[in-house]
User: What shape does this take?
Amino acid sequence: MRFRREHPPRNLLIDGISWEYLSAGDPSGQPLLLLPGALSTAESAWRTITLLEQQKYRLIIPSYPPEVDSMSGLADGVAKVLAQESIQTTYVVGGSYGGMLAQVFIHRHPHLVTRLVLSHTYPPVGSRLRSVEPALRLFKRLPMFMVKKMLRDRMTGILPPRATPELLLIAAQISETVDARLTRQAAMSTYLRMMEFDRQDYSPSDLSTWQGKTLIMLAEDDPTTPEALRSALVALYPGAVVHLFRGSGHATGVLESGEYIKVMVEFLEEKK
Assistant: This one.
């Protein structure tokens, strides 16, 4: 795959754990931390990376080590990756699962963030814990082929039910990554991080002293973010700019990639 050849990963040992990440784009450009989704690999965000590279950003995209089983641990590790790259402040973009991590990151390291983009994601929801715990119990005892099928079906199941070339490619990428890379530890960590996230008790006043700006991008037909969750997310970040897409579900970044990047870049480049 051409993208892999042109984007060799970097590695950093943090507290005995190997972190893999990509450094892409213009080395002299504005730093932008891009947090990938539940596939947990930097290369899974290759479409967005390719488009943002054209905007002359300096991109940092981490993969999530299976050994790190908490969102707070991921956020602190990402902060150390930025320090390794001598980045003192950055834009942060997180979509879906990466949007959960982006929220944890800004609550733990607000001094590192100047602009925040939350895309197709949701706030902590304590009631979800009851549905995650049974999945964890299953992951502990089921054969790995069944664990992989569960996660593969879950990830492809939230895509819009269309047979477009773009969505077929994303489904194939999900299958390849799950089949080739998913371990039992990685599956467990994915859900343990979600549980820690849903235990957070964030409030609209948490970032009252933060001087940055926030963009929230959502889709009205996204099955992962019904209206109640969309409203709760917006309420959690007072003053955020909100953009609502229509007809692209959880795959706006794929089906409406041009408009998706346009909305994001216009917000990021808006004068303070």
About this structure: The mean pLDDT is 93.
